[in-house]
Amino acid sequence: MTKRLCKYHPGKLLASVAVVSMAIVAGGTANAADYPNHDITFIVPYSPGGGSDQQARRLQPGLQKALGVNIRIVYKTGGGGAIGFSELYRSKPDGYTISNVVVPNIIVTSKKGKNVGYKPQEFAYIGMTAQAVGALMVPKGSKFKTLKDFVAYAKANPGKVTVAGVGGTGEVNTAKLMKVLGVKISYVPVSGGVGKMVPMLAGKHVDAGVTSSSHAVKHKAILDTLVLAGDTPSESLPGVPNEPRWTYTTTWGVMAPPGTPKDIVAKLNDALNKATPPVRAMVIKNGLTPMKQTPEQAKKFIEKAIADN
Predict the structure, then answer these.
(1) How confident is the model over 268-273, as a mean pLDDT?
(2) 301: domain range?
(3) Smallest Cα–Cα separation from 94: which of 142, 40, 57, 166?
(4) Both 196 and 226 in a single domain?
(5) Are 83 and 157 found together in one domain?
(6) Could you tell me if 237 and 216 are in contact, meaning their C-beta atoms sit under 8 angstroms apart?
(7) What is the CATH number of the domain that holds 263?
(8) 199-243 pLDDT tens trace
(9) According to the model, what pLDDT value does residue 111 have?
(10) 184-209: burial string, b at 16+ Cβ within 10 Å, e else
(11) Is 120 among the domain residues?
């Protein structure tokens, strides 16, 4: 028997590797070109009825029209949003699972929680769509008719006033306001989002609540707003005073899992920017400021937010 010897040819080996590599790249590009070809899951990390749910519902029709597939909204609540954010973090980065993102919530939960399972800077951010300032609200019929009433009572009764907020983010923003006002209160953390907090307020199970101005606008039939963060009066909440020293903003956006290909992120961003203009009037009416971003701008936005928080 004659043995056949195989000679080693470095050039041929490199050429073969190159061909395989190009095939892989070509295959990835082809898949991206076909994207999307089936339903997309949109994770809402908070309970139905809250700001994240409202954002997702507003965008859903426009996203479906732009992408040509069904957008399936699912709720993954708990941990101040951490459960939903973790779910997205572990999802396959193929563009078929996206999520609402709330800033600074995603940053605060990652810093305050232990082993939350994600790093805010690693997600693929598609774009921020709306922003609102903070608001201190009380139920209709409250003994606190004005901010002056609230401050006077809280100073005379340290720790007796109960103020609700959503998780750790609510606690941070409430603490900032109470420091500015020079009062001590008892903070009541609410898990699941503003959709869970509003009934607590309306039922007078707590004295007050801190959340974004968009919720103050939406629920002004059952809640009164005592003060707004920042120095810009709200057309939707006429007569409500501002507190410039209270720097509290909430921003809503959309993100994808870490490692999502840039061309898929670009397609999602294009769809998001097509879905936003039709709901602009609704966004403004609800006390929000519309936003439009590229993925690069969204990434810079989150990087600044991480540095600031």
Answers:
(1) 97
(2) 37-131+251-308
(3) 40
(4) yes
(5) no
(6) yes
(7) 3.40.190.150
(8) 999 999 999 999 999 899 999 999 999 999 999 888 889 999 999
(9) 81
(10) ebeebebbbbbbbbbebbeeeebbbb
(11) yes
Among 243, 266, 299, the domain boundary falls at 243
Dist. CA 134–CA 256, nearest whole Å = 26
Phi, psi of 240 (to 5 degrees): -80, 125
Residue 68 CB coordination number (10 Å): 10
Mean per-residue pLDDT over the chain, rounded: 88
- Beta strand pairing call for 71-75 and 40-44: parallel
135: helix, strand or coil: strand
CA–CA–CA angle 30, 32, 35 (5° rounding)? 115
90 and 233 share one domain: no
Pair 280, 222 in one domain: no
Residues 183 and 281 in one domain: no
Number of other residues whose CB lies within 10 A of the CB of residue 175: 15
pTM, full prediction: 0.75
- Helix 295-308 / helix 262-275 crossing angle, nearest 10 deg: 90
How many angstroms separate the CA atoms of 43 and 255, rounded?
Answer: 10
Please indicate, yes or no, whether residues 270 and 257 belong to a single structural domain of this protein. yes
